[in-house]
Amino acid sequence: VVQTIDESIWDIFSNPRTNKPIYFESGQTPLIYDPMSILAYGFASCTGLSIFLVNLLRTVGVPARLAGTPAWNSKEENGNHSWIEFYGSDSKWHIMESLPASGGKKDVDLWDPCQWWFCNEGRVADTEFYAARLTRDGDGNSTTFPLAWDLQNGDIVGESRTDFMRSLCAQC
Q1: From CA 48, how far away is CA 164, in angstroms rounded?
Q2: Is there a contact between 165 and 124 (Cβ–Cβ < 8 Å)?
Q3: Best exposed site among 19, 49, 104, 172 by fewest CB in 10 Å?
Q4: CB 80 within 8 A of CB 148
Q5: CA distance linking residue 81 with residue 50, whole number of Å
Q6: How many CA atoms lie within 13 A of 100 on its CB side?
Q7: Rg (CA), the chain
Q8: β-pairing, 23-24 with 43-44?
Q9: Is-contact 111 88, C-beta < 8 A?
Q10: d(CA 128, CA 124)
């Protein structure tokens, strides 16, 4: 289901003015990252595309969430990136890049994290990773999901995925 949705939605929701599929355009966040803006403009950065895909997966019952880093190697000048995590039939979280942000990769092995350009030792070294959460669930979690364009904003509930990503990408 995850792969079918990712491989088809970008054409289905094409820009009505241009008939072009939704495509990746860097530097759009925070101007164009909500689903309505993406539909209106027909493009978004990795953050917007990931939010769009998370919403569509949740619509059909697939647990999914936004994940990413505000700064590669803990250096803001190295840029940020967003992708999704989905909860697979194997009862584990898996990382995934949206089709437009991945450069159009189709027929991917969703269980293989090494196919994504950001899952390698050089990228994960000294990098902090996060995933968004819906609630704090009263568990005392005070972690927030840092917004690369508004690092002072502590309102988005998150959880650290640093250990997960370092372990996952160590095999690549």
Answers
A1: 23
A2: yes
A3: 19
A4: yes
A5: 10
A6: 27
A7: 16
A8: parallel
A9: yes
A10: 8
Classify 64 as helix, strand or coil. strand
pTM score over 0.90: yes
In the block, which residue shows the tokens 């972690």? 143
The beta strand positions in the chain, using DSSP E, are 23-24, 43-44, 64-69, 81-87, 93-96, 130-132, 158-160
1, two tokens: 């289901």
CA distance 165 to 172: 11
Contacts of 80 (CB under 8 A, 6+ apart): 68, 69, 70, 71, 72, 148
Task: Tell me the pLDDT tens digit for each residue of 76-132.
Answer: 999 999 999 999 999 999 999 999 999 988 888 999 999 999 999 889 999 999 999
Which of 167, 48, 35 shows the shortest CA–CA distance to 113? 167
Task: Name the H helices within the chain.
Answer: 2-12, 35-41, 46-59, 121-124, 162-169
| CA-CA-CA-CA dihedral for 14, 100, 55, 134, to nearest 10 | -150
Q: Can you read off the two tokens belonging to residue 144?
A: 């927030």
